[in-house]
Design a protein that fits this description.
The complex is a heterodimer of chains A (484) and B (95).
Chain A: H1 6-15, H2 20-38, E1 41-44, H3 46-62, E2 72-76, H4 103-110, E3 114-119, H5 153-160, E4 167-171, H6 177-183, E5 186-189, E6 209-214, H7 217-227, E7 257-261, H8 271-286, E8 290-294, H9 302-317, H10 336-347, H11 350-363, H12 369-389, E9 395-399, H13 415-419, H14 426-431, E10 435-443, E11 446-454, H15 459-471
Parallel strand pairs in A: 2-3, 7-8, 7-9
Antiparallel strand pairs in A: 1-3, 4-6, 5-6, 5-10, 9-11, 10-11
Chain B: H1 5-14, H2 24-39, H3 73-77, E1 83-84, E2 87-88
Antiparallel strand pairs in B: 1-2
The chains are: A alpha/beta (484), B mainly alpha (95).
Chain lengths: 484, 95
């Protein structure tokens, strides 16, 4: 049952081929059997999962079920889950049992999905390899010597190894799309404001966005339909109707105008990845898409802009962790300053401290204008590049990452090299646009991701474009041999 | 632009972070690299560009000024490191 799509699972549950209890048990057994090799879960909520499964079976029996009822899901440990540890991959929150559910969690629970547990992640979502987690690195199911990407590395590894049929992720600079690419999955970062951020522990509030990590666009459409929507508890949530993402999956893409930004195909792109992306473009040509070269002339500014804006927002957001109201507190503080400094010094890991300090620096007196204000302006330039591009094309395509999954420890001690892993994904967050990464081949037996970027609120179109490719390719159906 | 030991200690203090003395040299190096990376933003011509704080030109939504939260103090204090009589305890601030 672990190789079935969400639609197939929903069908089988209704046909009585197996119950949600049996399905949930099967996934819990797989987690027990395999997760020792991967470390994709921080917490497995076996008891709650079985109770939720029984509840779902009842709903299915009563004919009171939605599409996701009874289907297991893994929640990224950045989403607050009532009564369940919500660590955000940090020692700081190792003892934090959330008193409430994030809106996204609540919506998914209300839809009847069964939470299997909380997935591992880079600490506070700061990383591109899942190596900054307090709970240890996650391994890539395609090769356990390689990273799964990050920060939603646990979510991607779990879905790739069939330890969950679907998972939630969050994406601040590529944290859904990059691990999806590196693990051979479909991962979507929706338009900023599409999915509620309430109860999603904040890293960089103007960039963070939750989204689905699944095996196919068809599955992603079903999960996104539940995650998306207005939430009055999130002041940046957008009050716009949620379209039926599944309904438009099969629409023709004949005549689709696709832009290929020349900046995404230049220096730094691995030859093998470039070939796989070119082959995917050829497939799209056969499906009737028209391609033209475009330019996003300010692309070179996206990584530096991001590494001002994101740390600045992170230093502000993470000031809430003070050892007073929740989270880690140091032993025997001698005064209030000592309490703050040692609780934070002990609770945060190295990369988080680094970003807090960068953020503090660029916001500090004398530097604010030169760094933060200037970055807000260059952010505008980057956003305007996309605005101009979308006047001419429907979607933009390119590689999701410059290379396939790298080795564990390869970039761990070189922050700048790590930051460049997100070179093609970051600009999308700065502009607030939606984008999806889909499997587009393999290089040295490791998956390659194709990124498709759309205009604001074009999620349905992106999933349609992704789905059409998945109807004529089977990259998304491959399973890592060790986890078949 | 290179940062030095003093910069790291100043920033760590502003951010209320205790940094182990042995890790200061590492931070000097990595923060200098990052600041050097972001300094190139200064070369971009932004003379007529308005700063962008939000992906859309959206404004913050307003709501009626009425109480919407219920009292959940006990629930929230259950996860606090130290409380007494409904208060959060911290080391003595005023002598």
């Amino acid at each position: 049952m672990h190789n079935k799509t969400i639609a197939e699972l929903a069908q089988a549950l209704r046909a009585g081929d197996f119950s949600s209890e049996e399905l949930t048990r099967a996934y819990l057994d797989r987690i027990k059997k395999y997760d020792g090799q991967l470390n994709s879960y921080i917490t497995v909520t076996e008891e709650q999962a079985m109770a939720a499964a029984r509840n779902a079976d009842q709903k299915l029996k009563n004919g009171d079920a939605s599409v996701l009822t009874g289907i297991p899901i893994a929640q990224k440990d950045i989403f607050c889950t009532k009564g369940v540890k919500t660590s955000c991959g940090s020692k700081m929150l190792d003892n934090f049992i959330s008193p409430y559910d994030a809106t996204t969690v609540q919506k998914i629970n209300d839809a009847g999905a069964v939470m299997l547990g909380k997935t591992n992640m880079d600490e506070f979502a700061m990383g591109s390899s899942n190596e900054t987690s307090y709970y240890g690195a996650v391994k890539n199911p395609w090769n356990t010597d390689k990273v799964p990407g990050g920060s939603s590395g646990g979510a991607a590894a779990a879905v790739a190894a069939r330890l969950a049929p679907m998972a939630t992720g969050t994406d601040t600079g590529g944290s859904i799309r990059q691990p999806a690419a590196l693990c051979g999955l479909t991962g979507m970062k929706p338009t900023y404001g599409r999915v509620s951020r309430y109860g999603m522990i904040a890293f960089a509030s103007s960039l963070d966005q939750g989204g689905p990590i699944t095996r196919s666009a068809e599955d992603a459409a079903m999960l996104l339909a539940v995650m998306a929507g207005f939430d009055e508890r999130d002041s940046t949530s957008i009050d716009k109707p949620v379209p039926d993402y599944s309904a438009s999956l099969n629409e023709s893409i004949d005549g689709l105008k696709v832009g290929l930004p020349k900046e995404f195909f230049g220096e730094g792109l691995d030859d093998g990845v470039a070939r796989a992306v070119d082959a995917a473009i050829e497939e799209y040509r056969k499906l009737g898409a028209d391609f033209k070269e475009i330019s996003l002339p300010n692309s070179h500014l996206s990584v530096p802009t991001y590494y001002v804006v994101a740390p600045a927002e992170c230093s502000t957001n993470l000031s809430r962790f003070d050892g007073v109201r929740f989270g880690h507190r140091c032993d025997d503080p001698k005064d209030l300053m000592d309490l703050y400094k040692r609780s934070r010094g002990e609770g945060f890991g190295e990369e988080v401290k680094r970003r807090i300090m960068v953020g503090t620096y660029v916001l500090s007196a004398g530097y604010y204008d030169a760094y933060y204000l200037q970055a807000q302006k260059t952010r505008h330039l980057i956003s305007d590049d996309f605005r101009q591009a979308f006047a001419d094309v429907d979607v933009i395509m390119g590689p999701t990452t410059p290379e396939v999954a790298f080795g564990l420890n390869d970039k761990k001690d070189d922050p700048l090299a790590m930051y460049l892993s997100d070179i093609y994904t970051i600009a999308v967050n700065l502009a607030g646009l939606p984008a999806v990464s889909i499997p587009a081949g393999f290089v040295n037996d490791m998956p390659v991701g194709l990124q498709i970027i759309g205009d604001y609120f074009s999620e349905a179109r992106l999933l349609n474009v992704a789905h059409r490719f998945q109807q004529v390719s089977d990259w998304h159906q491959r399973t890592p041999a060790a986890f078949e | 632009m290179a940062l030095d030991h003093n910069d790291i200690e100043r920033v760590a203090h502003l951010a209320r972070l205790e940094i182990d003395a042995s890790s200061v040299p590492g931070y000097v190096e990595s923060l200098s690299d990052i600041i050097q990376l972001v300094t190139q933003l200064g070369n971009a011509d932004t003379a007529d560009v308005v700063p962008m704080a939000h992906p859309f030109d959206a404004v913050q939504r307003l709501r009626q000024d009425v109480v919407t939260e219920v009292d959940q103090r006990d629930k929230f204090q259950a996860v606090a490191p130290q409380t007494e009589a409904g208060l959060y305890l911290v080391p003595k601030v005023i002598d």
